């Protein structure tokens, strides 16, 4: 069976950064690409108190606890509602994260948003204080293209489009998703000494 392997740039980055997996609502199943990436990257996963009845304050506490355990600057790999949690967290602790890959951010303000997600609304629109790459699908049922672009623009993040990729989850066929690791390598290439120094200063 083909195993996901980090791109060379990601492998080298492991000497400078730690990778932290921030799943979305209901966590990521063992078949989800985040679970596969966690294994192949040697990453840790945020441990939230309740994945099924999410509360923003609890999720931020879980992210904060995970970041506090890091011994190197951290790159967060977030999916769906996890992207919104990262944006909320960045307003409180602007120097704690070195960079973030934000995959298929959920639109928590859409008309048909589940009530379980409303505690995360409205989504933050302030520029993120670290390098970020947003991967948005052209047919995401939980975030229209215009909305994904608006979020990326407001966050000051680079935006890459995934054609007809659904919500970039198991249901849309994204399981090991080795192709996605190339985007993680691209994010790593965006991270200069400035982002690394900010994260180190935050823990000094």
From TrEMBL:
Lineage, opening ranks: Bacteria, Pseudomonadati, Pseudomonadota, Betaproteobacteria, Neisseriales
UniProt key word Calcium: no
Species: Craterilacuibacter sinensis
GO molecular function, one term: hydrolase activity
Pfam family, one: Ser_hydrolase
Keyword entries, A-Z: Hydrolase
Entry-linked InterPro entries: AB_hydrolase_fold (IPR029058), RBBP9/YdeN (IPR010662)
Protein name per UniProt: Alpha/beta fold hydrolase
Gene3D superfamilies, alphabetized: alpha/beta hydrolase
